[in-house]
Amino acid sequence: MKHPIKEILDKRKHGINSGIASYCTANNIVIETILEYYLNTNDYVLIECTANQVNQFGGYTGMTPADFRDYVFDIADKIKFPKDKIILGADHFGPLAWADENESEAMENAKELVRLAVLAGYTKIHLDTSMFLASDDTSKKLSDETIARRGVELYKTCEESFIERSKEFPDSIHPVYVIGSEVPIPGGEYEEKATLEVTNPTDFENTINTYDKIFKENGFEDAWSNIIAVVVQPGVEFSNEDIHDYNRNDSKELCKKLKEYPHLVFEGHSTDFQFREKLKEMVEDGIAILKVGPAVTYALREGLFSLSLMEKELIKDENEKANFIEVLEKIMLDNPKDWEKYYQGNKLEQQLQRKYSFSDRCRYYMSKKDMHQCINKLFKNIDSNNLPLGMIKQYCPNTYLKIRSKQIEKNAKNVVKSNIYEVINDYYYAIEK
Predict the structure, then answer these.
(1) pLDDT of 181 strictly over 80
(2) Roughly how many angstroms between the first and final C-alpha of the chain, as a whole number?
(3) Cα 330 to chain center, whole Å?
(4) Burial track 297-314 (b if 16+ CB lie within 10 A, e otherwise)
(5) CA-CA distance, 384 to 397, in Å (whole number)?
(6) Strand 124-127 and strand 86-93: pairing?
(7) pLDDT digit string (tens) for 352-362?
(8) Number of folded domains in the chain?
(9) Minimal CB count within 10 Å: which of 131, 174, 244, 383?
(10) 13 and 159 inside one domain
């Protein structure tokens, strides 16, 4: 069977501006909402996890690649979404989580990570070797040769692992791969940037040529039949308060160079918070794989905040309130390691960033047991009261319209899901054939 992403991207050769959205998230409510949205289509849905979220040691979610697969499939079963329509993706899989170790140790961990992903049935693998490791000389740029050599090592492990998987599951779909060295930081930038430098077409071509050389040196002459995309910087990024909108004029030469490689597309990372028209322009220009993550969890947080504000009016007994906003703040303050290096400024500025930053570092805390209990209590409190439609209009005007028009039922979870739907809808608009 041909890989579904290859089928989607093959349409581009016939002049159809086809693409796919890549939803990189481990949040159960978000994943459920994405799958519900795609229930109304006949399309494949691509769900990815990062090496920080999921790895052989558990990542920050506590899940291995097989655990994450089962987690997504359990959600799919709950809403009767066909599992054969789910493409599992591995984002930034490489030595990312072990960058503070020497090359030998970091790469061994990276090999084990990609091996477990392929064995678990992941069929889209982003081989990310763009980061410095502890044994690298940080006084000079990491060379294309080093990045490609490490990438090919991981590719070799993946291919060997697929042979192993095929013995047990003969109908397994062969993985496709994404490479590239112009990889934005997962989850957004640390600091605001006045301008972004679009990948130089020559650098893109050097990446292709270097990988080609090392593939051939290692006997992988047919590797390009399995590689679908290259990650580049097309001029889109976000940070705490800044969003760089896509400007197709800035990336014109880069996208022109891509046309010389009709078997490839670009994968755009950090496309979160772009206007839907900009997302569609990106797909038209060859940035056909649109990665999104913080934007959907930001929408989740927005919806939960709105419910929490409504709860404050509906529930008068302080002991009965879930107080989601306050609980989230306390948990983040008690465990600062996942936000403190991202959020700068005085106490007030940091407090506002913990709530409203586009980097949405609070997503790292949503999987904690206390947060699950708090969210469930919030939903129960809202649903056990007669939530006035006028209050929904005040806090969630778009959701109010959907309830008024009988598109959704009036309940707490739908208020949150409706917010997430808006983000998904923008991406579906961009990739719709």
Answers:
(1) no
(2) 22
(3) 26
(4) bbbbbbbbbbbbebbeeb
(5) 21
(6) parallel
(7) 999 999 999 99
(8) 2
(9) 383
(10) yes
> By three-state DSSP, how is residue 271 classified?
coil
State the Cα–Cα distance between residues 77 and 350, nearest whole angstrom. 40
CA distance 199 to 269: 13
Between 396 and 186, the more confident residue is 396
User: What does the DSSP assignment read for 6-68?
Assistant: HHHHHGGGGT----EEEEE---HHHHHHHHHHHHTSS--EEEEEETTTB-TT-GGGTB-HHHH
| Side-chain half-sphere CA neighbours of 182 within 13 A | 26
Q: Is 429 helix (H, G, I), strand (E, B) or coil?
A: helix
Instruction: Kindly give, in sequence order, each residue whose CB lies less than 8 Å from that of residue 386, ignoring residues fewer than 6 positions away.
Output: none
Question: Cβ distance 415 to 392 under 8 Å?
Answer: yes
Q: Which domain holds residue 326?
A: 297-431
Do residues 418 and 396 make contact, with C-beta atoms less than 8 angstroms apart?
yes
pLDDT at site 1: 82
DSSP 137: -
Structure token pair of residue 36: 């519900």
Span 362-419, pLDDT tens digits:
999 998 999 999 999 999 999 999 899 999 999 999 999 999 999 999 999 999 999 9
Nearest partner of 93 among 155, 163, 142, judged by Cα: 155
Check residue 190 and give its pLDDT: 47
Q: Distance between CA 131 and CA 142 in Å, rounded? A: 8
CATH code, domain carrying 338: 1.10.400.20
Cα separation, 76 vs 85, whole angstroms: 10
- Residue 182 — pLDDT band, cuts 50, 70, 90? confident
Give the separation between CA 17 and CA 432, rounded to whole angstroms.
9
Residue found under tokens 């005040």: 394
Q: Which of 268, 292, 316 is the last residue of a domain?
A: 292
